[in-house]
């Protein structure tokens, strides 16, 4: 019977599972989003969320504890510099699992695991940035169209005159 067997072993030995989760966690911290199977994502979520909670307190001890799990200096510095600043007010739930369907080769259930505060599209920040940039583009196009047209007219006329001149010389 499986009484109190909570951890998903993922079909791997203990050392392989720990190193795989450490690599996936450092990739998640560095890239803010990874694509993986749902079983691995759920296991990674339980692995990485306590580390993110630990990063809220920026002390030498907490850095060393997180480094003992991740074993990647760049991921630890990224976690304490950027990620912990954004999630400082959040009481928990730092990651989100978005299911994407099944993998073609083996029909494994796939998903995207991402850090919640770094998805601009879901936060609504991406749409606001798009509208501002599109307004700027419209105004520059209207102003720039006259200038571009004036610049292109002269070379086109000169090019036409040059193109006609050699044809006229050939006829003579």
Question: Helix and strand layout, with pairings?
Answer:
Elements lengths: L13 H18 L1 E5 H17 L5 H11 L2 H14 L8 E8 L6 E7 L4 H4 L1 H47 L1
Antiparallel strand pairs: 1-3, 2-3
Helix pairs in contact: 1-2, 1-4, 3-4
CATH topology of the largest domain: 50s Ribosomal Protein L17, Chain: A
Q: Considering the protein shown, what is the CATH homologous superfamily of the largest domain? A: Ribosomal protein L17
What's the total number of strands? 3
Please compute the radius of gyration using only Cα atoms: 28 Å
Shape assignment: globular
CATH class of the largest domain: Alpha Beta
The order of strands across the largest sheet is: 1-3-2
Give the low-pLDDT segments. Answer: none
How would you classify the helix and strand content by structural class? mainly alpha
> Beta-sheet strand percentage?
5-15%
How many separate domains? 2
Order of helices and strands: HEHHHEEHH
Largest sheet: 3 strands, antiparallel
Essential attributes:
172 residues, 3-stranded antiparallel sheet, 50s Ribosomal Protein L17, Chain: A, 2 domains, mainly alpha
Briefly summarize what is shown:
The chain has 6 helices and 3 strands.
